[in-house]
Amino acid sequence: MTHNAVLQLRAERLARSTRPFLARGNRIRRCQRCLLPLKNCLCDTLKPACANSRFCLVMFDTEPMKPSNTGRLIADILPDTQAFQWSRTEPPQALIDLCTSEAYQPMVVFPASYAGSERQVLSAPAAGKPPLFIMLDGTWTEARKMFRKSPYLDALPVISVDLSRVSAYRLREAHADDQYCTAEVAIALLDLAGDNTAAQALGDHFTLFRERYLAGKPHHSPAITANDAENV
Q1: What pTM did the predictor assign?
Q2: For residues 218 and 214, what is the distance between their CA atoms, to the nearest angstrom?
Q3: Where is the DTW domain (predicted)?
C-alpha cells in the first residue's frame, strides 16, 4: 500500500474516533486504501507523476474518511502532497512552517469573490519559486468556514481558477454550477502552472475514480457512467 499524507491523516482520525465512522454505503465491503467497493478497487492503476507544483490539503474533520472525497486523488498522483486536519485555533506547526517556507510561494485556492478588498488575488502563480497550492477540502459550507476562520492563512494571497464548464463531479450535490470538486480544481491549477503531464495524470485518475465510484452505486446505470466519463 503506497503511503501518502492523506492516508496517514485518515489513520490518525480513525484512531481518535470513539465510534465507527459510517459513510453512505457503509455496508459495502470497501478497499481500505481507495475506499471503493472491492470489486471496483483502482489501487493497481495508480501511476504517480512528478510536478513542480506542490499541494497542501487542509481537510475538514471527517473528510479524509469519506469515499466521495477527491482531495486524496491528488495525493495518489503527487505523493509529496501534504495534508492536515483543519483547526481554527490550533493549526499544526508543520502547516505553519510549510506556509512560511522560503522554498515555495504559498497561496490559498478559493473563489476571488470571497476575498476581501485588502487581499491579494492571483490569476496565476508567479515565475520563480514552485507554487504551493493550499486547498480547503470539505463541503462548500465547510470550505467557506475554513476560509473565514483560519487567521494563519489570512496573510497569504488567494488564487482563483475559472473553470468555464459545468462540473463533472456527481458524487455529491453542488450548490451551484460554478462549484467544483477538489480534484477538478487541482487539475486546472496544474495546467495553469505548466505541469501538464501531472494534470493529465490526475485527470485520468479522476475519470477512472469517478467511473468506478458511480458503477459501485446500486442504482447506477453503467451506460450513464461511460458517457459521463467522456465529459470529464
Answers
A1: 0.85
A2: 9
A3: 27-218
Instruction: Show the beta-strand stretches assigned E in the chain.
Output: 54-59, 82-85, 105-109, 121-122, 131-137, 158-159
Calculate the dihedral angle through the C-alpha atoms of 26, 29, 32, 33, rounding to the nearest 10 degrees: -100
| 3 state SS for 194-212 | CCHHHHHHHHHHHHHHHHH
Place of cell 488564487: 159
Q: Tens digits of per-residue pLDDT, 122-169?
A: 999 998 999 999 999 999 999 999 999 999 999 999 999 877 654 454
**Can you tell me the distance from the alpha carbon of 104 to that of 53, in angstroms, rounded to the nearest whole number?**
9
Choose among 78, 77, 81: nearest CA to 55: 81
Rounded to whole angstroms, the Cα distance separating 162 from 148 reads 21
